[in-house]
Amino acid sequence: MPIVGPVSYFAVTQAFINHWTDANAANGAAILLNKEELELAADVSVATLAGLLASLESQRDAVEDVAQDVAIKRAIATGMRAFLIVKMGDFNDMMRAEHGSSVYGQSLALVPGISDGRDALLKPLRDTNRLWTKVNAWRVSQGKADLLTKGGYTQSAFNSALAGARTALDDLEEREQQLGIEIRKRNTVQENIYPILKVYRLKIPAIFPAGHAIVDSLPALTPTPGTTPAAPGLTMGWSAANGRAEGSGTASPTGSVTQHQLRASAGPSHDENTEVVVQTIEAGQPLTFATTWGLTMPGGVTSYRLVAMTEDGHERGSTPVVVSRPL
Known about the structure:
Blueprint (H helix, E strand, L loop, with lengths): L8 H19 L7 H4 L7 H54 L18 H24 L13 H53 L5 H4 L16 E7 L4 E7 L6 E10 L9 E7 L5 E4 L9 E10 L4 E3 L3 E4 L3
Antiparallel strand pairs: 1-2, 2-5, 3-4, 3-6, 6-7, 6-8
Helix pairs in contact: 1-3, 1-5, 3-4, 3-5, 4-5
């Protein structure tokens, strides 16, 4: 399997390590790659590559951990958005009922949408919070109690919830920024690995004669010429009864497909740069899935896609399917 994206780096690099170990044994001495050719401070051995793979695996874990954090923080923020939007709607309804003709009743902000951006969400909520404070002061001047909405909900409670929502959105933005940093760290390790694999493939035919088993078994680095498989199909949805996302796939009809992978990306837009492998299924096996990846919290949203893979490194994914866990 050649390199076709971040997910494939691990299996490909391990295949090169295994091959390099066999080549060392066949050569009777450790094969080193010239430091000048790689623009490094020291020659590169198979141990160097193994160390880089360990670093890459550690960085992959960091990306996956932060991606999960992003999914959780997004779910928390979504829940708080929904709560405040309902409470703001309750305030507007009560104001129209009790003070619709007053200057305060004519100063109501429009209720934002659940998917509005940060500024479009927070401004009307802040406006409502300030207006509620003014309405309470005006009512007190008229000898009336503070305005309460359904369930006896108060302006003070709304103010606290608004502060909590700001914190939740800040936390989400911080985690999204950290995810970008971890991805760049991972990509840096990948960029260090790739030229080593490339030079190794050039080095081996210079050491061993044509037709030697070591030469003939060199791992591929890029996909060989061939046909990209037909896309598989995927259906996924949230199972309230089982508390998880469940679904099934339709296998790619391309005969050279050897595996299918279910991959996930946190959020409503699928990002192949951050996707993780949830499940790998060999060709011919049932394509059924059950997972909570990215959906551990109410309000969580995750995009899934099913990827068909061939032995010679070609792959194609299904149309991404977005699954939301209800609040």
